[in-house]
Write a structure and sequence with these properties.
There is one protein chain. The protein has 101 residues and is mainly alpha-helical. 64% of the residues lie in helices and 0% in strands. Helix 1 runs antiparallel to helix 2. The two termini are 32 Å apart.
């Protein structure tokens, strides 16, 4: 499964600019990257199955926690007015939720 996840991430990167330019919807991006990732390993999945996979993936995303110690580092920076930048490969709409303290 980790190889499929890596392919999924690769195809997400291919879609990122289209998504940001609003020439591809979020749902279209999900369907594209999931079906392509599975296809890389000879597994053909239906659009319905790609939607189910994405729903499961999104449930698991909500369980992701930041690495131990990072919250303290971020809080230290905030308390001391230190400008920090967080770089991520995720969509802003998902990542922003993780940065609210």
């Amino acid at each position: 499964m980790s190889d499929i996840f890596k392919s999924n991430t690769k195809y997400a990167g291919e879609c990122f600019e289209k998504k940001e330019a609003a020439t591809m919807s979020t749902e279209e991006m999900y369907r594209y990257r999931i079906t392509k990732a599975f296809g890389d390993y000879g597994i053909n999945i239906s659009t319905d199955d790609s939607v189910k996979f994405q729903q499961s993936y999104m449930k698991q995303q909500k369980l992701i926690k930041i690495t131990e110690g990072i919250e303290e580092v971020l809080n230290y920076g905030k308390e001391n007015n230190i400008t920090m930048v967080v770089i991520t490969n995720g969509l802003e709409e998902h990542q922003r939720k993780r940065l609210i303290f």
